[in-house]
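Ticket #4471: complex job returned nothing on first submit. Input attached below:
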Amino acid sequence: MAVVRLPALLAQEAGARRIDVDARSLGEALSALPVAGLVLDERGALRPLVNVYVDGERQRDLDAPLTPSATVIVVAAVAGG
Amino acid sequence: MGTVILAGTRKGLFLLRADESREHFELEAEAPLLPGWQVNHAVLDRRDGTLFACTNSWVYGGQLHRSKDGGVNWDRAEGLGLPDESGLQLGATWHVEPGLASQPDVVWLGAEPAVLFRSEDGGATFALVEGMLEQPTRERWQPGAGGLICHSITLDPAAGDRLYVGVSAAGVFRSEDGGASFEPANNGTAADFNPDNPFPDVGQCVHKVYVHPTRPERLWQQNHCGVYRSDDRGESWERLEGNGLPSGFGFALGLDPADPDVAYVIPEEGADNRVTSGAKLGVYKTTDGGASWQLSSDGLPQPAWSVVLREGMAWDEAGVYFGTQSGFVYARRHDGSWVEAARHLPPVLSVSVAEWP
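Support reply: We reran it on our side without changes. The output follows.
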């Protein structure tokens, strides 16, 4: 199972900071989250200010494959006030 | 049971409970609700006590949160999005309007870009209202400072299929068929910023519009270009000025359900200087249908250069309430003076008031 780690607001929404997912691609993993509608827009695309790292590498290709032991970290872009 | 003010802010939702006098308010201990979310509007559904909040994040988009237990647990509405073929993408959510008591599962939601959604399951799922998306004049609508937004939804309580929406900057639109179609309702409202055609059929910048709940043929409107009243369901509008108001520009609007001739506005200096007029936090009240207006500032601070946004004023049978961008909330019985209900909140974006069922 890959593990997805969520930032604070998404963890608040999901009720967990870490979620295990059975997914073969990044898109499958994000779509399986209880916060999929926050990470992905209405077209299923990654929202532009959501950053995703797979095993430490920034990744925006939702077709990118995941290994069973992958760690996916979701990070909100840093800005604002 | 008790009165509660819902203050939507840039950083969460705050609930203020009133005592029986409505002169003292207490901030709920669990504050804020929905931390991290910008709450453009929030209401408590009088039909069953459900809380709804138009929640927004520049990272996670426009959403609608719903709670059936007073804000302890929340879920998010599904179905908010626009079809591929529209070429449009959903932006912020701006106004949530529970349906009439006769339509207990209906909930309306207004959003950017000038789109309307309707739920028929109490707000769990929403469907796009095609009649608004396909309104034939849409290509002539222009965004206001807050975007191209559907920010007002006001229902005719006497006619279940009649509703009005306000869009900046497109104007007021009326539906007689439950949202299947909409027609412009802007006769007599000005677009002074368009000197070549100051009275177009659409393109007006309505800031807030309400049907009067007990005289539903009467509507009140605070517009970019004046304060207006309609006595014929929006067929025509009368501009109310030269009558004690320091400015026709403003956003907030309040009514008195018991008296259709009463309205409240908070004038600002003008479009180029958006602070309350005359260095006063001044609410102006009419009791004669807008023929004359009187300053109602007893209990409000002076001098003050405040900003009250379009959802920043609420009203009910007992009184009127508003919140400022500087984080203060004030309340006033219809026959009383203003009292401070909260201070030092984040910037207040919306105020609503309700009785816990």
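Chain A touches chain B through 18 residues (CB under 8 Å). Closing as resolved unless it happens again.
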